[in-house]
Design a protein that fits this description.
The protein has 238 residues and is α+β, with helices and mostly antiparallel strands. Helices cover 34% and strands 21% of the residues. The protein has a 6-stranded antiparallel sheet, with helices on one face. A hairpin with a 3-residue loop joins β3 and β4. It starts with a strand and ends in a 12-residue tail after the last helix.
């Protein structure tokens, strides 16, 4: 076992969009999940610029800690500088919806699907002003089958500068809204609604609704089922 600050590393959980995730233990907090977020891309050879970016990111992430607790959003417990980046400390969750679907020996019951979708929608309503990467792997589930949205607000911190410009870092192709596949650079809450629809379809089918192998293949999968959007409809095609 290793150590990271005041936390004892218990094992590797996986790798997320913004860094490696570890299971750890703190003498007061108990079991937690640590996400190491490297910011090497900011080390552009100009120390003052890199330091300024790091301070800005740190302040934005710290601000997420002050957000009111919600039972359907994974809690950011702490954040501290580590090397060239940061370590984010989250409450520990046992599994995620992707793993539940993958390991299930039988389809989810109607009651389970309703419960998961209700918790997802409640979480989305709570954090409607922030963009996050909605997909089954980011919908974490604890030992009592309580679902919470992970990575809440982090896409806002790490997105490209500008007016909500889209980046492949904040969406997975299978859950991507058609307007993004068409190349839209600006988006609104409609992209989240599209992702929610894809997740619901996956719960019903016990398999991804639109499993495209590339952006073009993904768009073909979506249009084959939903039809071709009319002119002017792409930006609200949900």
């Amino acid at each position: 076992m290793g150590h990271c600050g005041q936390y004892t590393i218990l094992g590797n959980i996986g790798e997320g969009a913004h860094g490696i995730v570890f299971k750890a233990k703190h003498i007061e907090s108990g079991e937690v999940a640590l996400k190491k977020v490297p910011l090497r891309k900011l080390e552009d050879g100009i120390p003052n610029t890199a330091l300024r970016h790091k301070i800005i990111y740190y302040r934005e992430i710290k601000a997420l800690q002050e957000i009111e607790d919600n039972q359907n959003v994974v809690k950011l417990i702490d954040v501290f500088p580590y090397g060239t980046g940061f370590v984010l400390v989250f409450e520990y969750m046992l599994s995620d919806l992707s793993e539940v679907l993958r390991n299930s020996t039988r389809p989810l019951t109607e009651a389970q699907m309703k419960s998961y979708m209700l918790m997802l929608l409640k979480g989305v309503v709570f954090c409607h002003e922030n963009y996050y990467d909605l997909k089954p792997a980011n919908l974490l589930i604890n030992s009592t089958e309580h679902l919470k949205i992970a990575d809440f607000g982090l896409a806002r911190v790490f997105r490209n500068e500008g007016n909500r410009q889209y980046s492949h870092l904040v969406a997975t192709t299978w859950y991507m809204a058609p307007e993004l596949l068409y190349g839209a650079r600006l988006y609104d809450e409609g992209v989240d609604l599209s992702a929610i629809g894809c997740i619901f379809g996956e719960l019903l089918n016990n398999s991804p609704l639109f499993p495209g192998e590339s952006d073009i293949a993904q768009l073909y999968c979506v249009l084959r089922v939903r039809g071709t959007p009319r002119p002017g409809q792409v930006g609200s095609f949900v």
